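so my prof wants the structure for this chain in the tokens format not the other one, which i didnt know existed until like an hour ago. anyway here's the sequence
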Amino acid sequence: MSSEPHIFFSDVNERQGSFLRRTMLLGGATVIGGIALVGRLAQLQIFQAEEYATLATKNQFNFRLVPPPRGLIKDRNGVVVAGNRPSFRVLVVRDETKDLDQTLDLLGQLLPDTLERRRTIIREVNAAPRFSPVPVKSDLSWEEFSKVNLHAAELPGVMADMNEARYYPFGGAYAHLVGYVAKVSDRDVKAIRDKGEEPPSILFNPGFRIGRQGLEKALDQDLRGVAGGNRVEVDARGRVVAEDAAGSRPAVQGSEVVLTIDNDVQQRALEVFGEEAGSCVVMDIRNGDILAMVSSPSFDPNLFVSGVPSSVYRALADYERRPLTDKALSGTFAPGSTFKPIVGLAAMKRGVDPSRRIVCNGSFYLGRRFACLGRHGAVDLRGAIKASCNVYFMTLATEMGPDAIAETARDMGFGQTYDIGIPGQRAGLVPDREWRRKNPVRGDGKWYPGETPSYGIGQGALTVNALQLAVYTSRIANGAKAVTPRLVKSIGGVEQQGGAFADLPFAPDLLKVLRDGMEAVTAAGGTGFRNSQLGLGAVRMAGKTGTAQARNYGAGSRKGAGRPWSQKDHNLFIAYAPTDNPRYAVSVIVQHGGLGGGTAGAPRAREVMKVALLKDPEIRARIEQAGFEAPEDAGAREAEARGAADPIEAPTVEPVAPPPPEVAG
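here's what i got, hopefully its the right format
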């Protein structure tokens, strides 16, 4: 049975017409598709050729940021106190390792200390961008560097190279002042984003470091520099196959910062403390330049550059003498008898004759007995400063009241912070009646008369720091200008000018009375005579001793022998030199020194002052012209002097206000 066609055409022409229509449709579609294809090829190869060539190049080449060398920090004489040095390091690229855990196991056999940081390393490697090298260990020894290179074939994704690391050549001498750098943390990035800004790409580079404390933090933007970049050719998986030197951009080093600090004075200031805790500041009274500012005990900032082990950090943080705290700026203490010249100045400003004599029989009575460790008889202001007579200054303070004392204290530099480029300063406290109203005791905002005698001898709620003491001493020695401190001399070659000093609101002859009294302190019979002699011929030092009570002793003895360190008194000494033409001022605080300010503070101030004086060309020439040769080392005399204790000037009763805090933080 034959099959019949499903479509029937009535004639041949109809069948041919149908075939032609289908041929035309298919042909037209083919032509249109060809035209579209040719047009698209023309668009890609002619009109958009440059755009796609650029995209192809971007896929072929990557631009990898290179951290810039950090700017140098130097002292006033060009000595580098924060610099950069070559450092061997080992890095891991996660995407080039077959098994990260296995790679770290093998690496741990070569560098055992990486096993202690294994978790941290894994976290940092996993957080890094793809194919980005992550430093695993820095400061490799040559032996360690050689081991890693020798076993390179067995360590896929591991490489060793040399980079520049931040370095602090004088260790703890500048730990608090200059600070240190550390890895960028998530908090750093979040802080930038919280300001509505986008973090720079360089912050995500695993090898980049950011200023974490001191000037490194305050001047981070200046010291940071401009990141460079290496143009590298990569394969389809993102691995580097070649470098394009012509397309790379060198990094630009950060700005150089020059300080007013003198490295020799700075180092000596830390040395004299030994194991003691405290602070020292040296200032030029003519221009406010800070020659030294140290806090003791200190720590080695180099430990923090690559990441300090938690056990080391914990040991530093838990040590009772607080090496991580900057005692020069954030450590606040009662000034003790170093504050007495303020009370005398306040009284003279209100018309009290400095020749007026007040009789000291060893006690001052105002509701109860306040002791004066000595019977000084009838003394005037100069004599009262020399003998550090409590009765004299308690009498003046009671007559004036707290507001007059507070006004003069602020005029002389207390109760404020200074723009020296370092954050974290504490202003301390200069109390007055208004402060008491805002800070009542058990709901009572009244200033009671019984609080004033302690205030008059630098105790009570009054607290200051070492920088303020140096400013105060500089203003006394200058005699006319309200000197303010300066720490940064220049940034990137641009001089950082300090503002013109305002005039002090006191007649020069009033400040001369204070200087006369301070010169008598270091003369025969003064409380600081024994340990304040410079041994530089006619170049002499004037000063004022102080001992600040740290706790209530009740009826017991205040002598430090046998007491725990934290229960001993604080010792203070302020001084300027030369007495006949003042140039430099120094303040020393020995925390819980346990001895009088003339015994614990004065010998340290003396040794630091000697370095400052001998480095001054004019003063050294003066000494040499007089035919005097300065001794090279007075360390033995200092050790001998520390064996004896001078009289303590502070009272034996607790002030009405709570005792001052030992150290902020």
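also thought this was worth mentioning. The longest helix spans residues 12-47.
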